């Protein structure tokens, strides 16, 4: 695959429930610490190398940002880095926390 795909929150939630994809959150540290998808990896410039070193490039990755826009660039970057399947989550964390509050970890 040479391009990321978009995924709606319902599909992302199913992947999350079934543990069939890794969720990464690219929002700023303050937003991530205030609340994020339970089990999400906080993907930043500082954590990127660790993520790539530990990654299974065959396992699907879901990228989440605030509203589903910034995640598209990050998703394409991960495709370019060699991941087979990468999704950008439409609506981002703003939709997720409204639809799936039980799946949000807050500090």
TrEMBL record:
The gene is glpE. It comes from Xenorhabdus szentirmaii DSM 16338. The lineage of its organism: Bacteria, Pseudomonadati, Pseudomonadota, Gammaproteobacteria, Enterobacterales. One of its GO terms (cellular component) is cytoplasm. Its EC number is 2.8.1.1. It catalyses: thiosulfate + [thioredoxin]-dithiol = [thioredoxin]-disulfide + hydrogen sulfide + sulfite + 2 H(+); thiosulfate + hydrogen cyanide = thiocyanate + sulfite + 2 H(+). Keywords: Cytoplasm, Transferase. This is Thiosulfate sulfurtransferase GlpE. PANTHER family: FAD-DEPENDENT OXIDOREDUCTASE, THIOSULFATE SULFURTRANSFERASE GLPE. It is an enzyme of class 2 (transferase).
């Amino acid at each position: 695959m040479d391009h990321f795909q978009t995924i709606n929150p319902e599909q992302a939630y199913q992947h999350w429930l079934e543990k069939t994809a890794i969720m990464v959150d690219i929002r700023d540290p303050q937003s991530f610490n205030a609340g994020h998808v339970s089990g999400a990896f906080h993907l930043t410039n500082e954590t990127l190398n660790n993520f790539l070193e530990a990654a299974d490039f065959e396992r699907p990755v879901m990228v989440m940002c605030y509203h589903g826009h910034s995640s598209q660039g990050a998703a394409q970057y991960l495709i370019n880095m060699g991941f087979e399947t990468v999704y950008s989550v439409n609506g981002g964390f703003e939709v997720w926390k409204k639809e799936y509050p039980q799946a949000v970890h807050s500090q």
